[in-house]
Amino acid sequence: MKTTTDGSGDVRxxxxxxxxxxxxxVHPLDLTVPQGSFFALLGASGCGKTTTLRMIAGLxxxxxxxxxxxxxxxxxxxxxxxxxxxxxxxxxxxxxxDIFENVAFGLRRRGIKSVKKQVEEMLELVQLGEQAxxxxxxxxxxxxxxxxxxxxxxxxPKVLLLDEPLxxxxxxxxxxMQLELKRIQTEVGITFVHVTHDQEEAMTMADTVAVMNAxxxxxxGSPTELYENPRTTFVANFLGTSNLIEAEVDSxxxxxxxxxxxxxxxxxxxxRCSAPAPAGGKLLVGIxxxxxxxxxxxxxxxxxxxxxxxxxxxxxxxxxxxxxQYVIDSPVAGALAVYAQNVERDTRLVxxxxxVLHWNPAHTFALDAAQDIDAGTEEEAAV
Amino acid sequence: xxxxxxxxxxxxxxxxxxxxxxxxxxxPYWLLLPGILWxxxxxxxxxxxxxxxxxxxxxxxxxxxVTWHFATYWHALAEYWPQFVRSVLYAAAATVLCLxxxxxxxxxxxxxxxxxxxxxxxxxxxxxxxxxxxxxxAWKTILAxxxxxxxxxxxxxxLDVTGWLGWTAGDRVLATPLAVVCGLTYNFLPxxxxxxxxxxxxxxxxLHEAAGDLYARPWTTFRRVTFPLSMPGVVSGTLLTFIPAAxxxxxxxxxGSTDTRMIGNVIQTQFLRVLDYPTAAALSFILMAAILAxxxxxxxxxxxxxxx
Lengths: 383, 308
Fold this sequence. Notes:
The complex is a heterodimer of chains A (383) and B (308).
Chain A: E1 11-20, E2 23-33, E3 38-42, H1 49-57, E4 64-69, E5 72-73, E6 84-87, H2 99-109, H3 116-125, H4 141-153, E7 159-163, H5 171-188, E8 191-196, H6 199-205, E9 208-213, E10 216-221, H7 223-228, H8 233-238, E11 243-253, E12 256-261, E13 264-269, E14 282-287, E15 293-296, E16 308-319, E17 323-330, E18 334-341, E19 354-359, E20 365-368, H9 378-382
Parallel strand pairs in A: 3-8, 3-9, 6-7, 7-8
Antiparallel strand pairs in A: 1-2, 1-4, 4-5, 9-10, 11-12, 11-14, 12-13, 14-20, 15-19, 16-17, 16-19, 17-18
Chain B: H1 2-7, H2 18-25, H3 27-54, E1 56-59, E2 63-66, H4 71-112, H5 117-125, H6 132-142, H7 148-155, H8 158-165, H9 177-201, H10 205-213, H11 218-229, H12 231-247, H13 250-255, H14 263-274, H15 277-302
Helix pairs in contact in B: 3-15, 4-9, 4-12, 4-15, 9-12, 10-11, 12-15, 14-15
């Protein structure tokens, strides 16, 4: 997170909430986006992230709470009086105006007469100088997207709001535009608030990510923080994949908590446990698939001491180039995902092989067991 | 297609692909056939017949002969040009009134009506369930000399103003230009509302949001975004109103007087009362040509081909 210079570009949401009849789209939430940061609101569709964004833009009236831009209370202001601009999901370019006029729209509305130089510079920034006299429908999806960004940025808003701006693009173009947007943000230094359901997109681009679920912010932090220290099962499952194992607190030794899962013992650094852990209490132990190493059962003796270990059988092995994704059936923990880099692959690790899973205890995290273990998984999202 | 056959690999000769192609080739023509036949019998042939009538001379007793007598056109134009001008003026006035009344309503139905949308649409179309003549006759009652409308207009001194403008005469509304224009406006209003509605309804509401987000006030959003995007509806609505209104004679007949006769009334009289078929036919062609010219200029100026 960058340091605040004068704070006039901060976005402060205080107790802001939105209900439609009896349905609560956004539960009253407090959120501060520091000036100059690239902030992502991440969540599945219907989690309230777009509603939150639209309340900042003024397109949606909050049921409760206030929106501040720096020291300015904009809660009651209509969109055309707010110093924010939006890049809409389907771009919403004006089909009857050419690219130049689309980009110049905001300047002209504010009574600026000589727009030519500014528009041309902005079109250069998004590399569309040649297309100025074309109509939006004559451009490709990626180009239209860049026009939408240029049209918003030219007004030098205090905050740029992006509502799933890359959703309509194909994967390759999306990756390219992610880097492009990041470059533009660094160049202009404006606060970006980016709404997306794509966790990879949020992690690549944003300094700070707020994970939203069912109208609430589940967790807020840097991408690394969220990935390494998820505090809820939803965050653990929604950002990447997590193996969650039910375990019981056995004892404490040094800075570690000793847990019992089936007949095995697992170590957990106390600092990485986000839930109260009284002896005999239940916890969900989490470990990311890429942190686990696999060793064939015949070589079990070669696994160093002090590592957390479980045993299991290879149920499935999927080769995807850079890595192999294994599914291991463990009598203790059910199906576990393991991603192994394709370096010095052990050819004995085929379905049916007996293996030992082991990892550095430092990579273990633990969550409160009183939550849905499947929250945020793709299976649940599909329902 | 020899080149295609040569380029094709030996395992896939072009023959199997040909029968479906041949069958499909005539499909568009078969689909066009009923419409074309209909147009030939009920449009093209009568038009040719009428064209020949317009250059005939003779009398009802001795019969008419084609003598290529184009002078009929000049005589008709010289005698009836005031009715032509009046038709265009009345139709234009009715079209403008329809646009002013219809646009807000179409806008309301498209963007604000919510669950009332269908009901309002039905109300717009409902007058069609009654005969055109009955509806026009009803206006005779509405605008009757001792009716409440005239009484109210009189009390408010509106008739003084319209009388000064030449739209009404004395204490009457009936048998004045105002009555004819009101009748035209009323009868053709749905033809304005429907295309306007379908044009407005297609506008993505996110464009309104985008305009607002880019500092456009509601009125500016309308002027810069909504209205330009509704131009296809404005153009087709005005055409659907202006063209039939210019040729209409029922409103002038029932609500007007001899001073408000439109070209439709003249044609009707020539055909059915005076029985001067060549003049009536020539007048019809002049009207057609005039409307075609006006419409062409209008569409060129409106430049709707640029709109999506």
